[in-house]
Protein backbone atom coordinates (compact mmCIF):
# COMPACT_ATOMS: atom_id res chain seq x y z
CA UNK A 1 0.00 0.00 0.00
CA UNK A 2 1.53 3.35 -1.08
CA UNK A 3 0.57 6.59 0.62
CA UNK A 4 1.73 10.17 0.25
CA UNK A 5 4.26 9.76 3.04
CA UNK A 6 7.72 8.72 1.84
CA UNK A 7 8.35 6.57 4.91
CA UNK A 8 7.67 2.85 4.91
CA UNK A 9 6.48 0.82 7.90
CA UNK A 10 7.59 -2.78 8.43
CA UNK A 11 5.32 -4.69 10.81
CA UNK A 12 7.10 -7.71 12.30
CA UNK A 13 4.97 -10.42 13.90
CA UNK A 14 6.56 -13.60 15.25
CA UNK A 15 4.17 -16.49 15.82
CA UNK A 16 4.19 -19.99 17.28
CA UNK A 17 1.08 -22.16 16.95
CA UNK A 18 -1.39 -19.28 16.52
CA UNK A 19 -3.43 -20.65 13.62
CA UNK A 20 -6.75 -19.50 15.08
CA UNK A 21 -5.55 -15.91 15.40
CA UNK A 22 -3.58 -15.24 12.21
CA UNK A 23 -6.31 -14.66 9.64
CA UNK A 24 -8.29 -12.52 12.11
CA UNK A 25 -5.15 -10.54 12.93
CA UNK A 26 -4.38 -9.90 9.26
CA UNK A 27 -7.87 -8.58 8.57
CA UNK A 28 -7.72 -6.17 11.51
CA UNK A 29 -4.15 -5.19 10.75
CA UNK A 30 -4.65 -4.47 7.05
CA UNK A 31 -7.73 -2.38 7.85
CA UNK A 32 -5.80 -0.22 10.33
CA UNK A 33 -2.73 0.12 8.11
CA UNK A 34 -4.75 1.13 5.07
CA UNK A 35 -6.03 4.11 7.06
CA UNK A 36 -2.45 5.38 7.51
CA UNK A 37 -0.79 7.59 4.94
CA UNK A 38 2.30 5.47 4.34
CA UNK A 39 3.64 2.43 2.55
CA UNK A 40 3.81 -0.75 4.61
CA UNK A 41 4.76 -4.41 4.65
CA UNK A 42 3.77 -7.14 7.11
CA UNK A 43 6.43 -9.70 7.95
CA UNK A 44 5.17 -12.81 9.70
CA UNK A 45 7.90 -15.00 11.20
CA UNK A 46 6.97 -18.61 11.85
CA UNK A 47 9.08 -19.76 14.81
CA UNK A 48 8.77 -23.49 14.27
CA UNK A 49 4.98 -23.82 14.48
CA UNK A 50 3.52 -27.32 14.32
CA UNK A 51 -0.01 -26.23 13.38
CA UNK A 52 -1.41 -24.78 10.14
CA UNK A 53 -0.34 -21.21 10.88
CA UNK A 54 2.38 -21.07 8.23
CA UNK A 55 -0.02 -22.41 5.59
CA UNK A 56 -2.56 -19.71 6.46
CA UNK A 57 -0.01 -16.91 6.10
CA UNK A 58 1.39 -18.45 2.91
CA UNK A 59 -2.07 -18.34 1.35
CA UNK A 60 -2.55 -14.73 2.46
CA UNK A 61 0.87 -13.77 1.04
CA UNK A 62 -0.01 -15.27 -2.36
CA UNK A 63 -2.89 -12.81 -2.66
CA UNK A 64 -1.28 -9.83 -0.93
CA UNK A 65 2.22 -8.77 -2.06
CA UNK A 66 2.78 -6.64 1.06
CA UNK A 67 2.69 -9.79 3.22
CA UNK A 68 5.96 -11.69 3.70
CA UNK A 69 6.44 -15.03 5.44
CA UNK A 70 9.76 -16.04 6.99
CA UNK A 71 10.17 -19.41 8.65
CA UNK A 72 12.31 -21.20 11.22
CA UNK A 73 12.38 -24.96 10.88
CA UNK A 74 12.60 -25.27 14.67
CA UNK A 75 11.63 -23.03 17.58
CA UNK A 76 14.43 -20.51 18.15
CA UNK A 77 12.66 -18.08 20.45
CA UNK A 78 11.06 -14.68 20.04
CA UNK A 79 14.38 -12.84 19.94
CA UNK A 80 15.64 -14.85 16.98
CA UNK A 81 12.26 -14.50 15.25
CA UNK A 82 12.36 -10.72 15.60
CA UNK A 83 15.94 -10.67 14.30
CA UNK A 84 14.85 -12.70 11.26
CA UNK A 85 12.06 -10.23 10.62
CA UNK A 86 14.42 -7.26 10.93
CA UNK A 87 16.79 -8.75 8.34
CA UNK A 88 13.93 -8.79 5.83
CA UNK A 89 12.48 -5.41 6.77
CA UNK A 90 12.83 -2.67 4.16
CA UNK A 91 10.97 0.07 6.03
CA UNK A 92 12.54 2.98 7.88
CA UNK A 93 9.97 2.42 10.64
CA UNK A 94 9.51 -0.85 12.51
CA UNK A 95 6.49 -2.06 14.46
CA UNK A 96 6.71 -5.06 16.78
CA UNK A 97 3.48 -6.76 17.83
CA UNK A 98 2.34 -10.19 18.97
CA UNK A 99 0.17 -12.62 17.04
CA UNK A 100 -2.21 -13.55 19.86
CA UNK A 101 -4.71 -10.72 19.15
CA UNK A 102 -4.03 -9.12 22.53
CA UNK A 103 -2.38 -6.18 20.73
CA UNK A 104 -5.06 -4.05 19.07
CA UNK A 105 -4.10 -2.95 15.51
CA UNK A 106 -6.34 0.11 15.97
CA UNK A 107 -3.61 1.48 18.28
CA UNK A 108 -1.02 1.65 15.49
CA UNK A 109 -2.18 5.16 14.62
CA UNK A 110 -1.24 6.28 18.16
CA UNK A 111 2.32 5.03 17.68
CA UNK A 112 2.61 6.64 14.26
CA UNK A 113 1.32 9.98 15.53
CA UNK A 114 3.96 9.95 18.28
CA UNK A 115 6.69 9.17 15.76
CA UNK A 116 5.50 12.09 13.66
CA UNK A 117 5.88 14.32 16.73
CA UNK A 118 9.63 13.72 16.56
CA UNK A 119 10.11 10.64 18.73
CA UNK A 120 12.44 7.83 17.67
CA UNK A 121 11.03 5.08 19.87
CA UNK A 122 7.48 4.68 21.17
CA UNK A 123 6.63 1.91 23.65
CA UNK A 124 3.18 0.67 24.57
CA UNK A 125 1.64 0.81 28.04
CA UNK A 126 -0.94 -1.83 28.88
CA UNK A 127 -3.11 0.19 31.25
CA UNK A 128 -5.57 -2.65 31.82
CA UNK A 129 -3.60 -5.85 31.42
CA UNK A 130 -5.56 -8.98 30.59
CA UNK A 131 -3.12 -11.34 32.34
CA UNK A 132 -3.11 -13.35 35.55
CA UNK A 133 -1.97 -11.85 38.85
CA UNK A 134 1.43 -13.62 38.80
CA UNK A 135 2.38 -12.06 35.46
CA UNK A 136 1.14 -8.65 36.56
CA UNK A 137 3.13 -8.79 39.81
CA UNK A 138 6.28 -9.93 38.01
CA UNK A 139 5.93 -7.11 35.50
CA UNK A 140 5.48 -4.48 38.22
CA UNK A 141 8.58 -5.65 40.12
CA UNK A 142 10.56 -5.90 36.89
CA UNK A 143 9.70 -2.35 35.80
CA UNK A 144 10.29 -0.99 39.31
CA UNK A 145 13.79 -2.49 39.35
CA UNK A 146 14.66 -0.93 35.99
CA UNK A 147 13.35 2.47 37.05
CA UNK A 148 15.25 2.40 40.36
CA UNK A 149 18.59 1.04 39.19
CA UNK A 150 18.78 1.93 35.49
CA UNK A 151 16.69 5.12 35.49
CA UNK A 152 14.31 3.59 32.95
CA UNK A 153 11.69 6.09 31.73
CA UNK A 154 9.32 3.30 30.70
CA UNK A 155 6.20 2.25 32.54
CA UNK A 156 5.74 -1.13 30.83
CA UNK A 157 9.00 -2.14 29.15
CA UNK A 158 7.72 -5.72 28.70
CA UNK A 159 4.96 -4.61 26.36
CA UNK A 160 5.71 -6.22 22.99
CA UNK A 161 3.77 -3.53 21.10
CA UNK A 162 6.22 -0.80 19.99
CA UNK A 163 7.23 1.34 17.03
CA UNK A 164 10.69 2.76 16.36
CA UNK A 165 13.14 3.84 13.71
CA UNK A 166 15.02 0.96 12.11
CA UNK A 167 18.43 2.52 12.82
CA UNK A 168 17.89 1.73 16.51
CA UNK A 169 17.54 -2.00 15.88
CA UNK A 170 20.41 -1.95 13.38
CA UNK A 171 22.78 -0.78 16.11
CA UNK A 172 21.71 -3.47 18.61
CA UNK A 173 22.66 -7.15 18.54
CA UNK A 174 19.63 -9.38 19.07
CA UNK A 175 20.24 -12.64 20.93
CA UNK A 176 18.32 -14.83 23.39
CA UNK A 177 15.84 -12.64 25.32
CA UNK A 178 17.60 -9.28 25.11
CA UNK A 179 14.93 -8.00 22.69
CA UNK A 180 12.86 -7.01 25.74
CA UNK A 181 15.51 -4.41 26.60
CA UNK A 182 15.33 -2.68 23.21
CA UNK A 183 13.48 0.31 24.76
CA UNK A 184 16.21 0.63 27.38
CA UNK A 185 18.88 0.41 24.68
CA UNK A 186 17.23 3.21 22.69
CA UNK A 187 17.06 5.37 25.80
CA UNK A 188 20.68 4.68 26.78
CA UNK A 189 21.86 5.65 23.29
CA UNK A 190 20.21 9.06 23.50
CA UNK A 191 17.22 8.46 21.21
CA UNK A 192 14.05 10.39 21.94
CA UNK A 193 11.60 7.95 23.55
CA UNK A 194 7.95 8.09 24.54
CA UNK A 195 4.98 5.90 25.47
CA UNK A 196 1.34 5.49 24.47
CA UNK A 197 -1.48 3.69 26.24
CA UNK A 198 -2.70 0.65 24.30
CA UNK A 199 -5.71 -1.60 24.49
CA UNK A 200 -4.58 -4.97 25.86
CA UNK A 201 -7.27 -7.45 24.88
CA UNK A 202 -7.87 -10.85 26.52
CA UNK A 203 -6.59 -13.90 24.68
CA UNK A 204 -9.52 -15.73 23.12
CA UNK A 205 -7.82 -18.38 20.95
CA UNK A 206 -4.73 -20.48 21.52
CA UNK A 207 -2.54 -20.88 24.59
CA UNK A 208 -0.23 -18.36 26.22
CA UNK A 209 3.52 -18.96 25.81
CA UNK A 210 4.27 -17.30 29.16
CA UNK A 211 4.95 -19.61 32.10
CA UNK A 212 6.75 -19.84 35.44
CA UNK A 213 9.97 -20.80 33.64
CA UNK A 214 9.97 -17.49 31.79
CA UNK A 215 9.64 -15.60 35.07
CA UNK A 216 12.91 -17.08 36.33
CA UNK A 217 14.56 -16.45 32.96
CA UNK A 218 13.26 -12.89 33.10
CA UNK A 219 14.84 -12.34 36.53
CA UNK A 220 18.21 -13.52 35.22
CA UNK A 221 17.85 -11.34 32.12
CA UNK A 222 17.07 -8.35 34.33
CA UNK A 223 20.35 -8.70 36.21
CA UNK A 224 22.14 -9.19 32.89
CA UNK A 225 20.67 -5.95 31.60
CA UNK A 226 21.64 -4.19 34.82
CA UNK A 227 25.25 -5.25 34.33
CA UNK A 228 25.39 -4.49 30.59
CA UNK A 229 23.83 -1.04 30.75
CA UNK A 230 25.44 0.01 34.02
CA UNK A 231 28.92 -1.50 33.90
CA UNK A 232 29.68 -2.58 30.32
CA UNK A 233 32.18 0.28 29.96
CA UNK A 234 33.63 -0.09 33.47
CA UNK A 235 33.40 -3.75 34.57
CA UNK A 236 35.95 -3.21 37.36
CA UNK A 237 33.41 -0.98 39.14
CA UNK A 238 31.08 -3.99 39.34
CA UNK A 239 33.53 -6.82 40.04
CA UNK A 240 35.80 -4.61 42.13
CA UNK A 241 33.06 -3.76 44.63
CA UNK A 242 31.90 -7.35 45.00
CA UNK A 243 35.42 -8.76 45.16
CA UNK A 244 36.55 -6.00 47.51
CA UNK A 245 33.77 -6.73 50.00
CA UNK A 246 34.51 -10.45 49.98
CA UNK A 247 38.25 -9.79 50.35
CA UNK A 248 37.57 -7.41 53.27
CA UNK A 249 35.57 -10.05 55.16
CA UNK A 250 38.36 -12.56 54.65
CA UNK A 251 40.97 -10.05 55.77
CA UNK A 252 39.00 -9.23 58.94
CA UNK A 253 38.61 -12.92 59.80
CA UNK A 254 42.33 -13.59 59.39
CA UNK A 255 43.20 -10.44 61.33
CA UNK A 256 41.04 -11.64 64.21
CA UNK A 257 42.64 -15.09 64.13
CA UNK A 258 46.11 -13.55 64.04
CA UNK A 259 45.22 -11.45 67.08
CA UNK A 260 44.06 -14.57 68.96
CA UNK A 261 47.24 -16.44 68.02
CA UNK A 262 49.60 -13.64 69.08
CA UNK A 263 47.78 -12.47 72.22
CA UNK A 264 46.10 -15.61 73.56
CA UNK A 265 48.35 -18.20 71.90
CA UNK A 266 45.38 -20.07 70.40
CA UNK A 267 46.29 -22.76 67.92
CA UNK A 268 44.86 -22.17 64.46
CA UNK A 269 45.30 -25.41 62.55
CA UNK A 270 42.05 -26.81 63.97
CA UNK A 271 40.04 -23.66 63.26
CA UNK A 272 37.69 -24.00 60.23
CA UNK A 273 37.44 -20.21 60.35
CA UNK A 274 41.04 -20.04 59.14
CA UNK A 275 40.25 -21.92 55.93
CA UNK A 276 37.11 -19.85 55.46
CA UNK A 277 39.05 -16.57 55.78
CA UNK A 278 41.69 -17.76 53.30
CA UNK A 279 38.93 -18.85 50.91
CA UNK A 280 37.25 -15.42 51.05
CA UNK A 281 40.53 -13.67 50.29
CA UNK A 282 41.28 -15.95 47.34
CA UNK A 283 37.75 -15.60 45.92
CA UNK A 284 37.82 -11.83 46.43
CA UNK A 285 41.11 -11.50 44.56
CA UNK A 286 39.81 -13.66 41.71
CA UNK A 287 36.66 -11.56 41.33
CA UNK A 288 38.70 -8.35 41.35
CA UNK A 289 41.03 -9.79 38.70
CA UNK A 290 37.95 -10.64 36.60
CA UNK A 291 37.16 -6.93 36.69
CA UNK A 292 40.69 -6.10 35.52
CA UNK A 293 40.36 -8.56 32.64
CA UNK A 294 37.04 -6.94 31.72
CA UNK A 295 38.70 -3.52 31.72
CA UNK A 296 41.43 -4.82 29.41
CA UNK A 297 38.85 -6.23 27.00
CA UNK A 298 36.99 -2.90 26.91
CA UNK A 299 40.28 -1.02 26.42
CA UNK A 300 41.51 -3.19 23.53
CA UNK A 301 38.07 -3.09 21.85
CA UNK A 302 38.16 0.72 22.05
CA UNK A 303 41.67 0.77 20.60
CA UNK A 304 40.65 -1.63 17.83
CA UNK A 305 37.68 0.54 16.87
CA UNK A 306 40.05 3.52 16.42
CA UNK A 307 42.29 1.62 13.98
What does it look like?
By secondary structure, the protein is an alpha/beta fold. The protein has 2 domains: 8-231, Spore Coat Polysaccharide Biosynthesis Protein SpsA, Chain A (Alpha-Beta Complex); 235-306. It has helices spanning 19-34, 53-63, 78-88, 108-116, 133-150, 166-170, 182-188, 212-231, 235-263, 272-306, and strands at residues 8-15, 39-47, 67-72, 93-96, 121-126, 162-165, 193-198. Strands 3-2-1-4-6-5-7 form a 7-stranded mixed β-sheet, sandwiched between helices. Helix 1 (19-34) runs parallel beside helix 2 (53-63). The longest helix has 35 residues, at 272-306. It is elongated and about 90 Å long. The model has no long low-confidence stretch (mean pLDDT 86).
CATH superfamily of the largest domain: Spore Coat Polysaccharide Biosynthesis Protein SpsA, Chain A
Number of helices: 10
> How far is the first residue's CA from the last residue's CA?
45 Å
Shape: elongated
CATH architecture descriptor name of the largest domain: Alpha-Beta Complex
Q: Report the mean per-residue pLDDT as an integer.
A: 86
Briefly, what CATH class of the largest domain?
Alpha Beta
* Gyration radius, in Å: 25 Å
Number of domains: 2
- Estimated helix fraction: 40-55%
Spell the H/E element sequence. Answer: EHEHEHEHEHEHHEHHH
Output the structural class.
alpha/beta
Number of strands: 7
Which residue ranges are poorly predicted, with pLDDT under 50 across at least 5 consecutive positions? none
Give the strand content: 5-15%
The CATH topology of the largest domain corresponds to Spore Coat Polysaccharide Biosynthesis Protein SpsA, Chain A
Describe the biggest sheet?
7 strands, mixed
Order of the strands making up the biggest sheet:
3-2-1-4-6-5-7
Amino acid sequence: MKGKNSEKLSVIIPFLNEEENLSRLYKQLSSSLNDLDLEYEIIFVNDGSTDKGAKIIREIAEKNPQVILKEHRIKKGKGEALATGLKSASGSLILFMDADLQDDPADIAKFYNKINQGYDFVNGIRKKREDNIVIKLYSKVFNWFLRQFLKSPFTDINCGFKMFRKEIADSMSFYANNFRFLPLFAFSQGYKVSEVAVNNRPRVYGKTKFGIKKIFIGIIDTFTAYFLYKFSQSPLHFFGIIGGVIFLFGFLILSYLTFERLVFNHLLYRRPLLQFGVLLIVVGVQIIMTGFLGELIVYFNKQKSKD
